């Protein structure tokens, strides 16, 4: 039976690449129908590669959300950039996402495509924000002059506009292949990683300037509490300096409390488990430049 299914089943890996903030994580979440990647208006929200799996009887699309490509200075940024670039080399199709509000072609990312032989689609996101719809034509022309894209599609990831069309456009390019993941699996992220990412997302929303970049979150312990039927989660928030710790904690502990409440609510509903969340803030000087710290906090290989 399995062989019969294999013979007509199609599958493929599809990388979602582009500058920070264009909506890559929003797109993968909407395509999968579940929040697997955190999103925020801050650049560098996504630091790791995340897989999102879309399964039907006929095919399986494995989307790869990547950190935005940019030139970083510290070791964390270099590691993030490496993740983004190497993910293009391991996939069957690339979706190059751009922001419709930002206008013309982005050359340095397009340069990465010149060396690869796989189809690259241009996905123009955030069209819900465009007042002048004919502006799209100009954007398309400028990009097509820069690179021979396999196809072009304007979308709004936020409002799910044209996402079905995007999927239909990809189906014919899938090749015969197995189910790489169980049909009910939506992401390769562990629940632990997802929890730490959701906490980091709330921190990104409530802090400014250098703080979001200086933060890492690790889950220190997970203990089931059978009496209350809860999961007791303790997470460490790592920052680089005392001032950052003070900002995170806030006056009278107000900010950290807010972050904790928002994170707990979302983890509760996402994992369908009642959790009790304890947050600790810890200073680890210059962790973004220390290979061992990077590894311990879940970055790099
Ligand atoms: N108006 C609008 N905003 C969007 C859309 N897609 C994403 N965004 C917003 O753009 C910001 C960055 O999104 P995110 O998915 O984190 O971008 P990434 O850095 O490329 O992964 C967030 O504030 C999103 O809410 C869209 O289709 N329309
Ligand atoms: Mg992202």
Q: What is the helix/strand order? A: HEHEEHEHEHEHEHHEEHHEH
CATH H-level superfamily of the largest domain? P-loop containing nucleotide triphosphate hydrolases
Q: Give the oligomeric state of the chains in this entry, treating copies of one chain as homo and distinct chains as hetero.
A: single chain
Tell me how many strands there are. 10
According to CATH, the fold-level topology of the largest domain is: Rossmann fold
How many structural domains are formed by the residues? 2
Q: How much helical structure, as a percent, in the residues? A: 25-40%
Beta-strand percentage range: 15-25%
CATH architecture of the largest domain: 3-Layer(aba) Sandwich
The SS-based structural class is: alpha/beta
The small-molecule ligands in this entry are: guanosine-5'-diphosphate, magnesium ion
Low-confidence stretches: 1-6
Query: On the 0-100 scale, what is the average pLDDT?
Result: 90
Rg, please?
A: 20 Å
Q: Supply the number of helical segments.
A: 11
Structural commentary:
- The protein starts with a helix and ends in a 5-residue tail after the last helix.
- It is an alpha/beta fold.
- It has helices at residues 2-8, 24-32, 75-89, 107-113, 135-146, 163-170, 191-206, 211-214, 242-249, 254-271, 291-296; strands at residues 10-17, 50-55, 59-65, 93-99, 120-125, 151-154, 175-176, 216-225, 230-239, 275-283.
- The longest helix has 18 residues, at 254-271.
- α7 runs antiparallel to α10.
- The chain has two domains: 2-176, P-loop containing nucleotide triphosphate hydrolases (Rossmann fold), CATH 3.40.50.300; 191-296, GMP Synthetase, Chain A, domain 3, CATH 3.30.300.
- The chain is built from eleven helices and ten strands.
- Strands 1, 2, 3, 4, 5, 6 and 7 form a seven-stranded mixed beta sheet that branches. It has a three-stranded mixed beta sheet with strand order 8-9-10.
- The structure holds guanosine-5'-diphosphate and magnesium ion.
- Magnesium ion binds at residues 24-25, 37, 45-46.
């Amino acid at each position: 039976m399995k062989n019969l299914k294999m013979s007509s089943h199609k599958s493929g890996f599809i990388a979602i690449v582009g500058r920070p903030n264009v909506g890559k994580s929003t797109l993968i979440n909407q395509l999968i129908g579940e929040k697997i990647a955190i999103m925020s208006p801050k650049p560098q929200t996504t630091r790791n590669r995340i897989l999102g799996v879309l399964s039907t009887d006929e095919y399986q699309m494995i989307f790869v959300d990547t950190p935005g490509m940019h030139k970083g200075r510290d070791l964390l940024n270099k590691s993030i950039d490496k993740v983004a670039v190497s993910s293009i080399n391991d996939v069957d199709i690339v979706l190059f996402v751009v922001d419709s509000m930002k206008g013309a072609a982005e050359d340095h990312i397009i340069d990465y495509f010149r060396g690869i032989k796989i189809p690259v689609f241009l996905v123009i996101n955030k069209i819900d924000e465009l007042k002048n719809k004919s502006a799209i034509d100009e954007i398309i022309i400028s990009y097509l002059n820069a690179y021979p894209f396999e196809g072009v599609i304007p979308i709004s990831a936020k409002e799910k506009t044209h996402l079905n069309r995007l999927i239909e456009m990809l189906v014919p390019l899938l090749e015969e292949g197995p189910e790489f993941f169980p049909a009910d699996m939506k992401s390769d992220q562990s629940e632990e990683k997802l929890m730490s990412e959701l906490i980091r997302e709330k921190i990104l929303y409530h802090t400014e300037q250098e703080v979001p970049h200086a933060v890492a979150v690790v889950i220190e312990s997970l203990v089931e509490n059978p009496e209350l039927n809860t999961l007791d989660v303790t997470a460490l928030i790592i920052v680089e300096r005392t001032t950052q710790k003070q900002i995170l904690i806030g006056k009278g502990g107000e900010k950290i409390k807010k972050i904790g409440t928002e994170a707990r609510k979302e983890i509760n509903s996402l994992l369908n488990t009642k959790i009790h969340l304890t947050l600790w803030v810890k200073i680890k000087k210059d962790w973004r430049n220390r290979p061992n710290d990077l590894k311990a906090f879940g970055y790099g290989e």
